[in-house]
Amino acid sequence: MTGTAWSWPGALVGLTVGIGLLLVVRGLPMRRRADLNARLEPYVRDSPRPSRLLVSDVADLQVHRALAPGLHRLGAIVGQVLGGSASVRRRLERAGQPTDVEGFRAQQALWGVVAGIIGTVLMSLRWLSNGTSLGGALAVVSISVCIGVVARDQMLSRAASQREQRILAEFPSVAEMLALAVTAGEGAAAALDRVARLSSGELSGELQRCLADARAGATLPEALQGLADRTGISSLARFVDGVVVAVERGTPLADVMRAQAQDARDASKQQLIEEGGKREITMMIPVVFLVLPVTILFAIYPGLSELRLSL
Known about the structure:
By secondary structure, this protein is mostly helical. Among the domains are: 12-26 and 68-163, no CATH class; 166-268, Up-down Bundle (Receptor-associated Protein). The protein is built from eleven helices and no strands. Helix 10 (234-249) packs antiparallel against helix 11 (253-310). The protein is flat and about 80 Å long. The relative contact order is 0.05.
């Protein structure tokens, strides 16, 4: 084993140890300085701080506090490189998660660090087995970090899409219940309150948030419009527009609700038909590429055997 082969793993281990010692020194109690938020929080906090005896896992809490500043700094770097904070905030709202862009960037940084550590371990094992170059190792580690960051972003997009699908599945039933409640003589706010209390799911949670906004001072049309903006679903937006117009102009709400519920049912049927068409095309893949070749093989093989025997 030459000195060149030992140079970059030794440098990597030394760099890791140096960074660890630096973090330990910076985390010592005598080197900590309370920022302005930490000094003012005890005087402006609404509720008293909970006792540490009530925390389920104190070790996890200490680890989180130790890693949070570094992760937020790395998250800020990720945000500067990638950008798109408005898109991230919109997808967080669609996924039903807190619209904390900085926290999400910190999670992306954490995923990138974990993926980079995994890439470093794999390249170290490869170096121990048959050796590898420093450039290739750095490229693999960099690609691993990028994969971790992008994977967290794709996971958020998938969570938003799945939540939209659940809301679309719940929407026709909720629209029917609202139409029945309004037809029975209740107002729009009372019908929303009843349906939100009697139902469960993602759309029920959005209705409860809509009612909370209305109770906090917003008008019912503004609260409903906020619901449509948060979800970003076209069919739900049309339903909200119909209800808002009926409330503002004094149109009979029962007729509007029944018409909107019927439209929701029709949209759900259309979506099922489209999904069935896509599944039908998907089902042709095993038929064409698996069943059909085997069938042709069984049909041609006896003839080929007879021709071979005759020759």
